[in-house]
Amino acid sequence: MYARKVGEQTLTLGVSGNLWKDVLVLYDRETDSLWTQLSGKAIDGPMAGKGLEEIPSEMSTWAEWKARHPHTVVLKKSVPVGPGHINYAADPDMLGIFGSKNADERLGGKEMVYGVRLPGGAAVAVVESHLRNQVGVVVSRDDTPVLISESAAGGVVAYRLPAGPAAVRQADGAWKLSDGSRLDANSGELTAGPRQGETLERLPVTRAYWFAWASFYPRSAVVGKE
Fold first, then answer.
1. Which of 36, 55, 159, 163 would be 1's cystine partner, CB 3.0–4.6 Å?
2. Residue 10 lies in a domain
């Protein structure tokens, strides 16, 4: 999810119908620039080189989300499935519609990962099945510790941890930093301990196939590789 404002200009974004690195390309009606969906960067046109501000979001079931946010406005769109429909997700060998290759064989191309871009430009990808088994992981990359955890809504959230403290999951599902501060992973708020009242910086999380994520972030660290 991205904010539409770049500098002082608010953009109206639409789907261009094109792909770049097997990822959807957007366009804006104001400058006709092209933007890649996965990184939010403009790849062609007057805005080339600029980036959209990414807004943290979650993938959740409707039941879980509605329980937490009962007044949510919903855009519902039906997706017709006819006799000629291709089940792209079910074919592990189909990488993109043009038969791309998996450029990074640390994981299978269709392995689903949760990707996080860290401050400073580094990136990390956590294998979805590993994250679900562990409920959450703590990763340190370029001296930036990050907690990536499931949320109460069934989604995945990521927070930048204070320098130094690690985080350990408690029996009741909360997280506790090594300095004793208690973290609510649904809000990022530290609810007890030395840092009580602080709220951690939340980082955007992208759910993607590994071959697509790796094509944009080739030096991404991997967590959960078997």
1. 55
2. yes
